[in-house]
Amino acid sequence: MSKKVSLKDIATKVGVSTATVSYVLNGLEKEKRVGVEVAKKIKDAARELNYMPNQIARSLRKGSTNTIGLIVADIANPFFGQLARIVEDEAIKHNYTVIFGSSDEDCVKSEALIDTFVNRQVDGFIIAPSEGCKSQINALINREVPLVLIDRYLPQLNTSYVVLDNFTAVYDAVTHLVEKGHRRIGMVAYENSLIHMSERIRGYKEAMIDHQLEKEIRIKKIAYNLPRQEMEKIIGEMLTHLISDALIFATNALSLAGLYAVKTNQKKVPEELALIGFDGNEAFDFFDSPLTYIKQPLEQMGRESVRILLDEMKGNTENQHIQMASKLITRASCG
User: So what's the pLDDT on residue 282?
Assistant: First the structure.
């Protein structure tokens, strides 16, 4: 078996101290004022010698593993997939690795992921909390684990979060449809009590009331964990008895299922039915009338969540509450 390469081996090859090698390989060359050329020689030597750091020993010395645990609802969902990539790219800039997990909006799975990440000694969490996971999040808060909630928050708990202004996003979508001449505006949402969904529904209702359309309020709620084909079937059945002339879909997945249902039922968009979805999706462009949708500021949300988490990991205990504005991307589906 070949001898494991040490810091001393690299130091001998480059002609510097082991301390200087340690500074460079731990990303501290600027802080310790190691020259750019020397730092490059050290990194090149480490690669040539196939140096592999002892991560366990390193984390024990530093009291840190330089890892972040990210838990989202479903990383296969384009919204969460893009968000995860943004968080990962931002974390890498600060020498952190991100470990991912999907809760599937399942409280039991969420708890298992949190336990796994805690055992992996992650330095902090970014979590899109599932319904019913208040006690899990509260346990992290009580243990003073650095934590940022993203996409949705838990009103009962005092912790940092980065979310969309969901109320205004949907309120403005209703207003846009009203300005286009629509009055019988319905909404398709998920059947859960999470704050982001509640706020989207509240934005819809308040806008309808403010436009004197309270008698036209119609909300179809669908269980989250249904496959797309089942959601498509439910929306399709709704379309056969539809008295609305416009629909707002409350999520990306519902938007996609809704578009397929509309196509299957041969509804003409926007002549017979105007549509507004949530979040962009490349698939939206393949339908006859490209979908108008509510665009969330993913880049800013991802970067801000990492920034706040890094602040907390440095000892900043003041919670930060960030609520961001959306943008309505208007296309052919509203006329």
Answer: 77
Tokens of 220: 């179809």
Buried-exposed string 126-152: b where 16+ CB fall within 10 A, e elsewhere: bbbbbbbbeebbeebeeeebbbbbbbb
Task: Write the burial class of residue 31 (CB in 10 Å: 0-12 exposed, 13-18 middle, 19+ buried).
Answer: exposed
Q: What is the set of domains in the chain, with CATH numbers?
A: 7-53 (1.10.260), 65-163+298-323 (3.40.50.2300), 166-297+329-334 (3.40.50.2300)
- Give the tens place of pLDDT for each residue, 79-117: 999 999 999 999 999 999 999 999 999 999 999 999 899
Cα gap 260→287, rounded to integer Å:
9
Question: What single letter denotes the amino acid at residue 290?
Answer: P
Is residue 131 within 8 A of residue 191, CB to CB? The reply is no
Instruction: With beta carbons less than 8 A apart as the criterion, state whether 12 and 42 touch.
Output: no
SS3 98: strand
318: DSSP letter:
S
Instruction: Report pLDDT for 1.
Output: 42
| CA distance linking residue 14 with residue 17, whole number of Å | 9
Residue 7 CB: number of other CB atoms within 10 A?
A: 19
Q: What is the pTM (predicted TM-score) of this model?
A: 0.80
pLDDT at res. 54: 60
Q: What is the DSSP string of 14-71?
A: HTS-HHHHHHHHTT-TTTTT--HHHHHHHHHHHHHTT----HHHHHHHHT---EEEEE
